[in-house]
Please model this.
Amino acid sequence: MLGVFDSGLGGLSSVRKLTEILPREDIVYFGDTGRVPYGTRGRETIIRYALQDLRFLERFSPKAIIVACGTVSSVALDALRQATEVPVIGVVEPAVRAALAASRERKIAVLGTPATIRSGSYAAKLKAADPALSVLGQACPLFVPLVENGHIDPADPITKETVKRYLEPVLAFGADTIILGCTHYPFLKRAIGEYVGEGIRLIDAGTESALETKRILEEKDMLSQAGGERRFYVSDSPQGFAETARVFLDREIGEAVKYVDIEKY
Amino acid sequence: MLGVFDSGLGGLSSVRKLTEILPREDIVYFGDTGRVPYGTRGRETIIRYALQDLRFLERFSPKAIIVACGTVSSVALDALRQATEVPVIGVVEPAVRAALAASRERKIAVLGTPATIRSGSYAAKLKAADPALSVLGQACPLFVPLVENGHIDPADPITKETVKRYLEPVLAFGADTIILGCTHYPFLKRAIGEYVGEGIRLIDAGTESALETKRILEEKDMLSQAGGERRFYVSDSPQGFAETARVFLDREIGEAVKYVDIEKY
Model:
């Protein structure tokens, strides 16, 4: 079983990638919809929430924990790894490796929530691997509300203006590679791609983290031969979950969604 | 002492109005920044949070509790009134009275968070007062993130496109009066006003609720003759509070901001 958690429902895009790349694995997903968003909260709060999310998923004896949340991956990954024996896979490290492999001009931009960008986690890891690299961190606070309210069509004037606002500095900076450092952002990939043009490589952190999970399971010879069951838990009313899940998973879900009182963990 | 609470910092706009209208009253403000936003959460969660907020403020023996949150005023006001002896003043009822007095064409639009509009609380109260009234509820999910990220300039293209998206149906409907049913929306009053034109009356729920508070204190002969102290509490890191408060209160705040663990109430 793989445990996946996110501050909300954006992490379902990681479930989708995991299902594509590892179709035989059972997945338990926890979306902390009762306390979303994490991105605007203080560091201590984010770590406390992440540890509770971990403790809840550990009840299912997972083979690995996938942190589908850019904010938690940036702020709380070390705390999580100290708290468990299970491999913890974030979205930052895999995306950093992919970006380093893709960039020729050595100019990389990172799009993320204000907390992710403020944490400097992507920039620090990129620079540690290659000190000659230029990195621009661009906070995109309106992208999550845009996606959650369905404004993902590249022709939507609100989407267009918002993409322009955040990506204009990225173009001025001259990035040849852009990391989409938040689970929601792949839904804006088309809108971003149309604005920046084809020459620029977009790295989707969710996809890279699913590939990393596959590598780790292969290494440990822990790949499942049968399975593919999925269970979903949320910390707020499950009402409305099915509809959102349909958008993020791109298919109907028949699975039941259960409420969990996360403050108990 | 007046107790004021909101799901976040938007309610500081109510503190500003209360300070203008009742400058001698001491105010304790609680902003539930650790659990913001309420507007997207389920009904049970909103009621549970609101009761915790109430219990915290009751420690200060308030003369009245002002619920500066449109979502709580729409969803949880009855639960709050059943739980306390202290007068509880929401933002819905005062705004409804003001809108009924202002509208000549008997066509009123209500702007609010998805939860406020879904609750139908404004529409129900308007219709109860005048069944012949036409009411349009317009959910504006992007307005809060716009305000919180400083996109309030009417010339900002993102603001312009978003205002157009939500207000176009309001103009098509033919409203002569618009209720701004969320504490954040007064910051978009100029942008909304420029789009809809001068003939349409904009009712600010925060102002109406401050006037209602004054009426109630006068009635009970409880107006303060001296005072004006303000105290601020939040449920997430107080870091960054001063800056936001400066925007919402339109002045520097010297007062200390304290953290409160709201889950304990």
About this structure: The two ends of chain B are 20 Å apart (CA to CA). DSSP finds twelve helices and ten strands in chain B. The longest helix of chain B spans residues 157-173. Chain B has a mean pLDDT of 92.
